[in-house]
């Protein structure tokens, strides 16, 4: 599933060529709306997992199996991984929001992989 939030590049055609289901928002609505749309699609279609990544090149798609592993092997209910390591001063507000949910500190919560399993109605 790819949520297109007003891309002006070849994102939609490339995603469709790769076999993805593409849902294009009517205009640029922002990341929050795109993520909520993805969650609604996942719930309404009984997805087993949803992996949240950005399409701006910040995330390495080949790392998806690594972040999926703890959930697939029943070692975790949710898997979150920051792409930043030590030395980065990130968004304090987003990090505080993330720590309040996960109990873990992330340098910048905007740049995380998130795996959320077991979507059902």
Automatic annotation (TrEMBL):
Q: Which InterPro entries match?
A: Glyco_trans_2-like, Nucleotide-diphossugar_trans
- What residues does the Glycosyltransferase 2-like domain cover? 1-85
Q: Signal peptide: which range, if any?
A: none
What name does the UniProt record give this protein?
Glycosyltransferase 2-like domain-containing protein
């Amino acid at each position: 599933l790819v949520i297109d939030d007003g891309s002006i590049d070849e994102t939609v055609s490339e995603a469709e060529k790769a076999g993805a289901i593409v849902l294009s928002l009517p205009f640029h609505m922002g990341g929050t709306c795109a993520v909520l749309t993805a969650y609604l699609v996942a719930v309404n279609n009984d997805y087993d997992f949803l992996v949240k990544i950005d399409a701006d090149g910040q995330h390495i798609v080949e790392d998806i199996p690594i972040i999926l592993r703890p959930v697939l092997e029943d070692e975790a209910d949710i898997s979150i991984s920051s792409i930043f390591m030590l030395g980065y001063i990130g968004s304090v507000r987003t990090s505080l929001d993330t720590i309040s949910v996960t109990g873990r500190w992330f340098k910048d919560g905007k740049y995380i992989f998130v795996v959320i399993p077991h979507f059902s109605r």
